[in-house]
């Protein structure tokens, strides 16, 4: 069974990626390493502790739940 034209096209594209140009694989790997480094740096910057924001007493909200008096009486 002979390979179809789509299979041949895929083989040609993979061969060009692997062997085409000067240092194509090393260029791809360099770009990938730069991307991973930038991703890690972004995560590191996001986890850095930030100065806590001061809140005045007027801005505070009471979130304490109120007692349910119907349960207490039974």
Can you put this structure into words, describing what you see?
It is a single chain. The chain is elongated and about 85 Å long. It has three helices and no strands. It has helices at residues 5-19, 24-47, 69-73. The termini are far apart. With 74 residues, it is an all-alpha fold.
What descriptors fit this protein?
single chain; 74 residues; mainly alpha
Point out poorly predicted stretches.
Answer: none
Major sheet details? none
Percent helix, as a range, is: 55-70%
Q: Please give the count of helices.
A: 3
**Run of helices and strands:** HHH
Say how many strands there are: 0
Radius of gyration: 31 Å
What's the pLDDT, averaged over the residues?
79
| Category by helix and strand content | mainly alpha
The percentage of residues in β strands lies in under 5%
How far from one another are the termini?
A: 84 Å
Shape call? elongated
Task: Map the helices and strands.
Elements: H1 5-19, H2 24-47, H3 69-73
Offer a quick outline of the entry:
With 74 residues, the chain is an all-alpha fold.
């Amino acid at each position: 069974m002979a390979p179809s034209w789509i299979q041949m096209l895929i083989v040609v594209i993979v061969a060009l990626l692997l062997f085409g140009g000067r240092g194509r694989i090393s260029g791809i790997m360099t770009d990938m390493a730069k991307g991973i480094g930038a991703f890690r740096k972004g995560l590191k910057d996001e986890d850095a502790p930030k100065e806590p924001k001061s809140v005045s007493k007027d801005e505070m909200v009471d979130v304490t739940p109120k007692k349910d008096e119907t349960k207490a009486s039974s």
